[in-house]
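Researcher: Let's run the pair from yesterday's discussion. Sequence first, then tokens, for each.
Model: Starting with the first of the pair.
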Amino acid sequence: MRWIFVRWYNDYDAKRNGVEDGKRSIPGWDDVNFPPYVMEIVQAAEEEIDRLKRRFDNVDEHLKASYCKALSALENAQQKVDDAQAEYDKAAEHYYEVHGDHPVGKRGTSIWLYRLFIAFLFVGELPMNTVVFRAFEEPEWLTILMTLLVAGILVGCAHYLGVLLRDGACKNRTSAALTLLIVLVPIAVMCGVAYMRESYLAAVQSGLREMGEASVNLGNAQLFWTFLGINAVAYLVATIASYFAHDEVSRTLEFLRRAIHKRDLARHAFERAYTRRCAVAQQFGDRMREVKQNAERLMNVYQTYNLRSRPDIEAERKAYKQFDLPMPACFTKYPDIKIHSCFKDPSKLDWNCRQGVLGPGGGT
């Protein structure tokens, strides 16, 4: 409709209609109703504004959906920040009770680095223990199962021993007993595995010596303590890594920092969605105001040439003793071409995504 409005309702057309109506004394001096041509302009302008409003509604459906999605993401991110802050405050309070000072700027071992290290130790235990269980000449799946069980026991006990030491291994009888159990069980397992490995390699060395091919001659005790020491070192390193990785203050602080970072990203996305919607509403509002201004300008052109062309203009001036041109009653005010207030102030758009949600930026 806009091209029709521009094509048919122009300055030339307004001048021509103003002259024709003025010669016929339309509108009358006391007529409060607007002349037909003026109403045509108003109707064309309102139809164009209504068309722009429908186009905006179609576009705004997607813009509002993006805004609501960004708002929901921001609310979820803020909730995660609040939860992470509560967890950090709880950990910091516990740290103060244990150490007597506040954990200022603590940063522990990365939990992902710790998990990678533990996985490396777990995999490293497999080849050392597989050869021992193969000496029993059991099925391969049973050999692999026993190897995984031994590796899982050592790594798992080291993990939980580090956690207990971090939380206070002897703070009560239960934790003290559990700590003792986690220490004794791996020692028993390591001694058993070292003994089986020592027996297996002793038999291998004995066979090689009979064949005259033995290059290294180690005693049974040396083999036992060597294998026990290797597993003990791995267990100790895993325990130390678990101790430093499970610093609750550092862990919760890291979660809090990540939550704040994600919250900031969600806030930027929310602000972009809000700004984008306001900008589009402003653009459509500018086009509507342009249509309204053009209509008012055409009405002004029509009025000017209408007054100049009236045959009774001088008589009317003398009758009312007016120096300026007299004006029909309907020309004292243009018809009101309405534009929705949201296109003047985008904050008046419908920002409610669901019941109880605040307006733009509310609560964020």
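Model: Moving on to the second of the pair.
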Amino acid sequence: MSVFEVLALIQGTLASQTSALTPWYIKGIKDLCFLMIVVYAVTPLLLGGKIFRQTAICAGFWLAGIIPSLLFSATVLPFPVLASGLRWALPMLLPALLFYKLDISYMVRITNALILLFLFHLLVQIYQLFFMGHWFGLNQWGFPSRLPGIFSIPNAAAFFNLSTLLFIDRFKSKKTFLFLAGLVSTFLTASGTGIITLLIFILFIIARRIDVVRKNMKLYMLLCVPFFMSLGLTYINFFLPSRGSGYVAISLGTRFSIFIDAFSSGIISTHMGLATNTGILFSNFLQLDSKTMIADNLYASILVNLGYWGLLFFGILIFIYFKPCFRKKTKKESNFYSFFLFLIAAFSFTTITFEVFPTNLLISIMIAFAHAPKHIHYQQGAS
């Protein structure tokens, strides 16, 4: 919902990516959507409906992870920053609230809506190719080097693309055109993480079509993933000169440095909300005297916002969420969720994935669907 930021990018009038140009009541639409889904999931429980054991356990770990930091931070931080921290943490609770509420028909409808949004995103990228300002620099052909489409950050656009392709791969049968469109769109973002993850996705698609490879997918991926990652890094260094000759070293080095610095947060953090994009926008807009930081990756964000205590409980929660992904009875499902895990892990190192809308919602939905009963999971219905 960064409408005015995207318009400023196109017009060449953007001055900073840490200041909000879009009015709060427009940005709030995505939070309202998220809140409506939470209300939809919680209402049956409040009306005396059955509370699933797994939901209760996950909600308990979520609360245990955030409450200590929330209480300690409340004594030193202004309310808007604390609210940013709660907003940041909410996507970690949503999968548990959606357990056993999703079936294949829901997933197909979500995928159809995603396709429409993705095609609109691609059209915006094509427009940006010819008419956008030079905020991200120019490539060797004189075109804008990075095209974020309906997003203000190219990395977020690439994350959305790959998540959409994953839904298309799982829940649609006619997908060749959409795969090609996704490939073009991701390369237009010039996101290093996006391009490397896309190459791994292509590897995954090719591998499962070869019988001998499909039966030994884990070994094949173990051998080939490093090669494809090297191929992606080579492409970025040699064919995206606008990113700078030392782009890979600088980008990864900076994020790793931020992650190491985040360990100074202590056992229980008093900084909840400071390492969030929303907290930065609130502080700038309201001119708050808060020392916010650009965490630039999820792992550092968890450490700064919650400390070691929150990292422990969120780690347990993540294990519970992804445990079913390793217990799929078919090779197809097992391989699909293997790439799903790789996608999240890769982008979490370059993005605060909890705050990338609508991708944070898509991840929550996919995790919840992984917990669906087997007879729902394997129903025919994808079109």
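Researcher: Give me one sentence on the second I can quote.
Model: Residues 3-377 form one domain.
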